[in-house]
Amino acid sequence: MVSVGLGLLLMRLVIGVVFIGHGAQKLFGWFGGYGPKGTGGWMESIGIKPGVAMAVLAGLMELVGGLLFTLGFLTPVAAVLIAAAMLGAIVKVHAPNGFWSTANGIEFPLILLVVAIGVALAGPGSISLDALLFN
Q1: Within the chain, which residues score under 70 in pLDDT?
Q2: pTM for the complete prediction?
Q3: 51-71 vs 35-45: helix crossing angle, rounded to 10
Q4: Residue 17: Cβ within 10 Å count
Q5: CA 39 from centroid of its chain's CA atoms
Q6: What is the rounded (10 degree) CA torsion for 26, 31, 37, 41?
């Protein structure tokens, strides 16, 4: 079905590009990000050590996961990378603030995590590299 494929493509594009951007912020300091050193310093300040290494790992998970998700290529791998990054964010940053985004709670990262897993379970759709290469 083209409409289902188009709907999944829209979700993959928006979520994937957002993650590419977040990964680029951590890895390269692009889009207002702080790069590995700045992000690593912040991570150390909230107890995630070693900060720079963890910033690079988080950035790679977001960048690679976002790229794969956008393309609909190795979609389950992409979803695991995105979900792992969001699970870390939920546990270490957002959970102490409750549920709602207005208080920096878990609402938004939880939505991203669930969409990534949902797309992986449903499949990336007909407009994807997975469909082109593996069907």
Answers
A1: 1-2
A2: 0.94
A3: 120
A4: 14
A5: 16
A6: -80
